[in-house]
TrEMBL record, chain A:
Gene Ontology MF term list: transferase activity
Family to which the UniProt record says this protein belongs: Belongs to the DsrF/TusC family.
Record keywords, A-Z: Transferase
Keyword Ribonucleoprotein applies: no
InterPro entries per record: DsrEFH-like, Sulphur_relay_DsrE/F-like, Sulphur_relay_TusC/DsrF
UniProt-recorded name of the protein: Sulfurtransferase TusC
Entry superkingdom: Bacteria
Originating organism: Pseudomonas graminis
Alphabetical list of Pfam families matching this protein: DsrE
Keyword Cell cycle: no
TrEMBL record, chain B:
Family: Belongs to the DsrE/TusD family.
Cellular-component GO terms for this entry: sulfurtransferase complex
Subcellular location: Cytoplasm
The entry's keywords: Cytoplasm, Transferase
Protein name: Sulfurtransferase TusD
Gene3D superfamilies cross-referenced by the UniProt entry: DsrEFH-like
InterPro entries: DsrEFH-like, Sulphur_relay_DsrE/F-like, Sulphur_relay_TusD/DsrE
Domain of life according to the entry: Bacteria
GO molecular function, one term: sulfurtransferase activity
GO annotation terms (biological process): tRNA wobble position uridine thiolation
Amino acid sequence: MAKSLLIISRQAPWSGPDAREALDIALAGGAFDLPVAMLFMDDGVLQLATAQNASQVQQKDLSANLQALSMFGVEDLFACRTSLNQRGMPPTGLSVEPLQVLDDPQIAALIDRYDQVITI
Amino acid sequence: MKFAIALHSPAHAPSSRRALLFAKAVLAQGHEIVRLFFYQDGVHSASGNVVSPQDESDTAAQWRDFVSTHKLDGVVCIAAALRRGVLNAEEAERYSRPAANLSAPWELSGLGQLHEAVQTADRLICFGGP
């Protein structure tokens, strides 16, 4: 059976290529039909904010790429509730669907459940 | 045990040196390294153009020697490398850039190589940050 991989994305969308490069791992895994999942935590939850205006900072909009996750079969998508709360973001109406918002103990269990973990 | 090692930091970061020491320890303990995958700023750890001050250790050169000596599979992510100006001769020519700074034992390839390593290895160990 294929090993499962959890990608933990912890960087804000416009703080450099990190968010994009974490996402690329997930998309590549989806393209190979592998069991990959993404967890957005810390500043990574800012990637999920709606109504971002990337062109204001001369960047390409990342949210279109995030939408591509489900097209690539990556549907195990998680966000850290604590990180959302800390940034005043509501746990619903975020830019990625389907998204499961997890409490801290659930995150510990999630990490435990995956064979391999990459944090960016 | 089979290890895959991912490095996300450049040669001047202590984490690049830590990754190298870890990789050496893996082999010294009789384990196997199925692949080294250099991603993000880790592509700089494979650059052939790093020049360290004479009284400092040259981690990029040590990585190169380590991979060559043990004939390891050293993969540098091509998308991350192009973005950061780490090119082999073929890519330098393809994009009409004046210089190449990546050569054997390193190989430029895609993220599929990371996923293959994840599948092959018992453990994936990542090094990044400072």
